[in-house]
Design brief:
It is built from 14 helices and five strands. It has 285 residues and is an alpha/beta fold. It has one domain: 3-Layer(aba) Sandwich (Rossmann fold), CATH 3.40.50.1110. The longest helix is centred in the first third of the chain and has 23 residues. The radius of gyration is 30 Å and the shape is globular. The N terminus and C terminus are likely disordered.
Length: 285
């Protein structure tokens, strides 16, 4: 092939290739978009996610935890293994609960008390029942102060009736008393809807259910046969509408520093009364 022939043969091919790729190099063509020139069209507007949808998304994110370790026994396994036995005369108390307990820095509010935090965020009474032995009984406290129920009402581990929550309360208390541990049951905290962050907390926890569950707890603890003490946070934290006082919880549910300052003396007072009680012959606890 001579040089002249090669040039004559390749030139049309090169022109064809350039012609195929040319559109990608052409300037953008005008569009029918009515938005001002140089502005990016607005993204499509999607309807906001509802509180119930957010709960469902959260529950789906917890599937592996629920399948592998429903009670989340791994959370405090190492801490429990290294915890020294209670000293003679020590009034050890376990704070047993969900995120409200989990987020409570006990040493800041009870610096001289042998109080142990065994709260786990998001938990329901069903999960707490599973870990009652490892996180309460095996620690051999004088008393356990239990704050739970709000996540049951919200359906964190699935829909639950008040009767099912009450059954879990009963079983947890019976297990504790069987091991001579005094039981303090805290009222379920109120909720509010005064801030944007509070909307989900409020809608997922109807105030009337909270009131009904607290009424049952009070009645259960008032029966001497059950040997439990009722700690009423609810009355100390509600406003004139029966909602959580706005200044006590930024998100409508979880106490802030001001909220814990209301709770701390009530808790300590109840604990001191309970641990100072002497066991009467014939009592189960």
């Amino acid at each position: 092939m001579t040089l002249n022939f090669a040039v004559r043969f390749l030139t049309p091919v090169a022109l064809f290739i350039c012609g195929v790729s040319a559109p990608a190099q052409q300037p953008p063509q005008p569009t029918t978009d009515s938005s001002p020139q140089g502005q990016i069209p607005a993204a499509p507007v999607h309807p906001p996610v509802t509180g119930s949808q957010r709960t469902q998304i959260w529950r789906q994110s917890r599937i592996s935890t629920y399948m592998d370790d429903f009670g989340e026994l791994a959370r405090y396994h190492a801490a429990n293994a290294t915890l020294e036995p209670a000293k003679p005369g020590e009034n050890r108390v376990v704070f047993f609960g969900d995120s409200i307990t989990d987020g409570w820095h006990l040493m800041e509010y009870f610096p001289d008390r042998p109080y142990i935090n065994r709260g786990i965020s998001g938990q329901t009474t069903s999960q707490m029942l599973v870990r009652s032995r490892e996180d309460v009984i095996d620690l051999q406290p004088k008393a356990v102060i239990i704050l739970a129920g709000t996540n049951d009402i919200a359906g964190n581990t699935g829909p639950m009736s008040l009767e099912e929550i009450e059954a879990n309360y009963t079983t947890i208390a019976e297990l504790a008393r069987l091991h001579h541990i005094k039981v303090i049951y805290c009222s379920v905290l109120p909720v509010h809807q005064y801030t944007e962050r509070a909307s989900d907390m409020f809608t997922q926890r109807p105030p009337e259910k909270i009131v009904a569950l607290n009424r049952w707890l009070r009645d259960y603890c008032s029966d001497p046969a059950h040997g439990c003490t009722y700690l009423d946070y609810f009355s100390a934290m509600i406003d004139d509408k029966g909602y959580m006082k706005k200044e006590l919880a930024d998100d409508g549910l979880h106490p802030n520093a001001a909220g814990y300052k209301v709770m701390a003396p009530l808790a300590d007072d109840a604990i001191q009364k309970v641990v100072s009680q002497k066991v009467v012959a014939g009592e189960s606890n």
